Amino acid sequence: MSIMKELSKKVLEGDIRAASRLIRNLEDQIPNTYIAMQEIFGKTGNAHVVGITGAPGAGKSTLTDELICAYRKKGDTVGVLAVDPTSPFSGGALLGDRIRMLRHAEDTGVFIRSLATRGAMGGISKAVGEAIHVMDVLKKSKIIVETVGVGQQEVDIINHAHTVAVVLVPGMGDEIQALKAGLMEIADIFIINKADRDGAGKLYKETLNMVNMSKDNKNGAQGWRIPVLLVESVLEPIKFAESVEALRDKIDEHYQYLIDNDLLSERMRRKTTAELNEALWGTILQPILKDLHADGEINRLVDKLLTKASDPYSLAAEVASKYMK
Amino acid sequence: MSNRKIRVLLAKPGLDGHDRGARVIARCFRDAGFEVIYTGCHQTPEMIAAVALQEDVDVVGLSCLSGAHNYLFPQVAKLLQDKGANDITVIGGGIIPEKDMAGLYEAGIKEIFTPGATLDSLVEWINNNVNPKE
User: What's this model's pTM, rounded to 2 decimal places?
Assistant: First the structure.
């Protein structure tokens, strides 16, 4: 058996280190890793993927830590992909998210993996999409992706998460900031963290105003009303835990909303399209991709993926052989 | 030719809250191009071993200034061996008396760095002794 097939077999058996190694192969772009992913792809698509994003120091890791507790309490198993930036100078990275999540180290229902961005500019790393699949076949029911500390523009998480929570903290700017495009548009849920601090009330009102202006809210019962949740001091553990449990329930409510309104397939389609794009990029060149988008072939390929009739790697090879005669 | 980036877990086992040294090393490893998972103080060997597997690291760097290295370091090495991860290189640093070193090497600690060791010597040791597998 080839190394890659053996690796995917171990992953499917639930071997944590093999899973982490597979994610590493994806990060290091080891040739033939796609062979392992081919074995896995057909079994993915079961987990609820939750994105946690926001500015550096907003409290994403601490919230994630408490959210893990909240989900474990409910009987969910949890995978966490925690992304931190790669140094543009040395290529190294200090991955410090999991220092907030140490209490889960020995819980076998929780698998936390740190990733460096490796030069990707969208707030996550290139390997995140496939790392989600790996967590998925480990049968984690909730997969939390914690982005790097983001600014206004790093919104790639929307290609991968079913539910995106944007963490805001007081003191970052006036209401014009809330009207800007980018980060403020992608939230399914807003979290005002550190709500015991000065300026939290004002931020809450401004965020609420912004949410009330959005088109979705005019659709009445049809639309998802983006909730704005207040989370207070971690120094009061019981209160903190309660507000994060409320967050958990909102996240799950959003997932249920997507299912009930047949919107999940739309998000899945967005995610799957992004993945197929990646695989094609790795195999062939941009002009061919442009060509594909132009004649609509890309939609027919995505359909095949949604039915699990194939996997992105095989399709990429097909297209490549057609163009590279 | 390996394309791998070296991944290092830096941790402080046991009841020792002095992590300035470990942080300096974390920063130094970052600048050397390694991916460093830093998990800080007050950890049990079990936690460290679990994290090492979840993160698929090549090296576990343990720092201990409290004098409990003779239990803590070998225990981490043993737990990793028990889990079939004897390919992970365990190194240690801190206030380690000369007379304890032989025992630690025997327990599977590959190198010990004591006060006075330069940052460059650490990076060099890792670059020379750790070769991540495909």
Answer: 0.89
